[in-house]
Design brief:
This protein is an alpha+beta fold. Helix content is 28%, strand content 38%. It has a single domain, classed as Pnp Oxidase, Chain A, CATH 2.30.110.10. The chain has five helices and eight strands. This is FMN-binding negative transcriptional regulator.
Amino acid sequence: MYRPDSTAIDDPALLRDVMDQISFGALVTSLGGEFEITHLPLLVRYEEGKTVLEGHFARANPHWKMEGPSVVIFQGPQAYVSPSFYPSKAVHGKVVPTWAYIVVHAHGHFETVQDGAWLQAHISALSDRHEAAQSKPWSVSDAPVAYLAALKRGIVGFRFTVDRLEGKWKVNQHKSSQDRQGTYDGLMASGEQGQDLAQALASFPEKD
């Protein structure tokens, strides 16, 4: 991934936290010059000093048969940045539109898991993770056992071991303090994703 120094984020703990917050990624695997891409929810684990992603494929998806080197792309908040955000526009006019975004790439390899007990624990953990905010959380145990057994036969689990993480925060952190403030104010008025990006911008120290 192209990452100018001002945008590169390499703190593994921060990147794991962001992947966990996004919790949905695009798994990309290359085989014989062809690319297979699957978009899916993922659980982020940290085990014995290694970052591990857990997920599952539909058994009908041929991607699960392509075990090997892959990358998972986590796309975070993104928003348009208008030249009108910048106070410098009124001074010299040398400004253009851009896009602000946060992204994490996890490089590694995956291995499939077809053990019934593992799949049961996986779908329970995945459901619990995303049902926690509901007023009446749904649980895997709420569904009939025979129904769940049939569904489990239609999926294949996998564990993705991460060898390398790289992140990119492109939020105008390299701009002057005035244009940073203009970017912050503009993003804060750009909806939920813009607000998340504005908070990310605020976390960077200002240029001297």
